[in-house]
Amino acid sequence: MSGGLLAAVRDLPPESTQQAVGYPSLFLLVSLGALVPVVPTGAIVSSAAVVALHQSSAVSPFPLLFVFLVASAAAFLGDLALYWLGQRGVRSRNGSRWLGSLRSRVTPDRLAHAQERLDSHQVSVLVLSRLVPAGRIPVMLACLLARMPLRRFARGDAAACLAWAATYQLIGILGGSLFPEPWQGVVAAVGLTLLVSAVPAVWRRLRGSGRDALRHEDA
User: Fold this and answer.
1) Helix (H), strand (E) counts: the chain
2) How far is the C-alpha of 29 from the C-alpha of 35, rounded, in Å?
């Protein structure tokens, strides 16, 4: 069955592939991923970039430009919506479901580290938080708890979303340029994106294991 699906994807003409991905679908998926942080938005942008690369030419680079603009705008609006919802929880005595969801995704150590970096670097931390996998939510929560105004958060997040969209689009372009067929580039781009996303989690586990080993030795 998987072989038939792969053959179907391979045989799709470029026009049908572009239509299937679609800029409205890209916008919807990225903005939804900003609100619900379990959607792999980086892989979505990289895949869309692969398709756009095969639709682009030296005469018409507009598909790649549109992917960049749509992805960055969707990420920005999704971030603003999530931050606004989190602000409502901060102002409320009983909190909110959205603020509680953000807290549940961040360990105390990571929150303390994000708060420390926010105090010293401000806007640059927002930019880096979007580039580092799983770094966005701790920094956003730190901004919420510091009661950063939405307007100030938006100024830093705008640059962060532009840098994020450019980074994952570049991953897609690199993956797509290595293979003649769009589906091959999509597979390569998604694999590379997931690998990049997994590195911080593996690193945190290794650090945690090292700390536990040191504690046992001290005991």
Assistant:
1) 11, 0
2) 10
Separation between Cα atoms, residue 148 and residue 154, nearest integer Å:
10
Q: What is the pTM of this model?
A: 0.74
185 has pLDDT over 70: no
Site of tokens 């770094």:
135
Directed axis angle between helix 41-55 and helix 14-21, to 10°?
Answer: 150
Q: How many residues does the chain have?
A: 219
Distance, CA of 79 to CA of 75 (rounded, Å): 6
Cα separation, 65 vs 20, whole angstroms = 18
Radius of gyration of the chain (CA): 20
Structure-block tokens of residue 122? 């401000």
Contact 182, 114 (CB under 8 A): no
| pLDDT value at residue 201 | 55
Query: Is the model's pLDDT at 197 over the cut of 80?
Result: no
Hey, CA dihedral for 85, 90, 93, 94, is it positive or negative?
A: positive
CA–CA separation, 149 vs 88, rounded Å? Answer: 12
Question: Is the separation of the CB atoms in 199 and 80 below 8 Å?
Answer: no
